[in-house]
Design the sequence.
């Protein structure tokens, strides 16, 4: 086996493990988050729900790693001006347009 094949295989294995690991290691509970604005953005793969708060921008998308397939329902229950307790994961990376994803939200 060549060195290239070994390195390529290692990169694929690490890449396959990286996404699920970061999904769980970046999980955080936030409380008292105020919804400032929200918008549905159509993409070629479906919809992306954007949520702006007083402190941060989030996205609300389905994710099989958390068995979350109700992003439209979560988005529909959020009202501008409400205060929410949320479970989120991921990183905010502005130059890549990455936002943390809302996994659960309880708003009042």
Sequence:
């Amino acid at each position: 086996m060549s060195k290239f094949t070994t390195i390529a295989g290692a990169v694929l294995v690490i890449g396959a493990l990286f996404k699920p690991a970061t999904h769980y290691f970046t999980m955080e509970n936030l409380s008292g988050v105020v919804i400032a604005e929200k918008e549905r953005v159509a993409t070629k793969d479906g919809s992306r729900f954007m949520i702006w708060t007083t402190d941060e921008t989030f996205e609300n998308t389905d994710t099989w790693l958390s068995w979350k397939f109700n992003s439209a329902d979560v988005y529909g229950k959020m009202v501008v001006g409400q205060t929410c307790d949320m479970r989120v994961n991921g990183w905010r990376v502005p130059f890549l347009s990455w936002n943390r994803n809302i996994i659960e939200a309880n708003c009042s």
The chain has a mean pLDDT of 85. The longest helix spans residues 3-25. The longest strand covers residues 28-43.
